[in-house]
Design a protein that fits this description.
The chain is an alpha/beta fold. Helices cover 32% and strands 24% of the residues. Strand 4 (69-72), helix 3 (79-88) and strand 5 (93-96) form a beta-alpha-beta unit. Helix 1 (2-8) packs across helix 6. Bound molecules: nicotinamide-adenine-dinucleotide. The site of nicotinamide-adenine-dinucleotide (NAD) has 20 residues, from loops.
Amino acid sequence: MGATVTDLLKDDETAQVVCGVDITPCVGGKIPVYRTFDCVKEKVDVILDFSSPAALNVELNWAVKKGVTVVLAATGYTQEDLKFIENCAKKVAIFKTANFSIGVNLLVKLVREAAETLGEKFDIEIIEKHHNQKVDAPSGTALMLAYSANAAFDDSKEYLNGRCGKIGKRGNEIGIHAVRGGTIVGEHDVIFAGDDEVITLSHSASSKRVFAAGAIKAAKWLAGKPAGKYDMKDII
Ligand SMILES: NC(=O)c1ccc[n+]([C@@H]2O[C@H](COP(=O)([O-])OP(=O)(O)OC[C@H]3O[C@@H](n4cnc5c(N)ncnc54)[C@H](O)[C@@H]3O)[C@@H](O)[C@H]2O)c1
């Protein structure tokens, strides 16, 4: 994602990538890539983070110290991470979303509407598919979709990740299933299965550029904003 963002911004007149930070050494690129934030010498307005929750602590401490706004695009944060993000957002502007595509964010709304309309009689199952390098499961987007559906039932449903063995009858749950393979960029199906009918709402991304473009839009929008926590709803 970092490379895709850099590529999309190469001819942009209003924003530029001044440097990168990555624990894996990167050589041969056109911008400096440092191993840690403490090595960054450039003036930075916004950090755009497509790395890993493992980067969070060092990154946000640096951002707070320097007064730099942050767009968090990685997925897989723990509850503890989310609390830390809330605290740091009292000091600098932080934008966070698990998915920058407008289409996915529309899907999140449609899923809520479908769940409200169809009600308890329809079982909800989510299938997400991603490339074989993805490190977290289920995807952050699958969780966004599950939370959106569950909001229609006052969050009363359990989340069940995959099924195996003698599991008995289906309970009051939302099933979430992760498929990993090849170079699949990101596919999400939300299935509402009722008596004698099934409705499936789907989104498919065919390129990482859709996420990079959304993240750049968010970074430009966030620059100069006061401390606080922002997400896609603020932009849309
Ligand atoms: N919000 C969105 O729309 C969206 C879209 C695509 C991917 N993502 C998320 O963005 C993240 C990156 O995705 P990707 O496909 O580019 O993965 P990737 O594995 O190709 O790239 C991640 C990079 O982060 C680096 N990294 C890992 N841990 C680090 C640390 N502690 N400090 C500094 N650098 C570190 C890795 O060396 C690697 O170069 C994932 O969490 C993914 O789920 C979010």
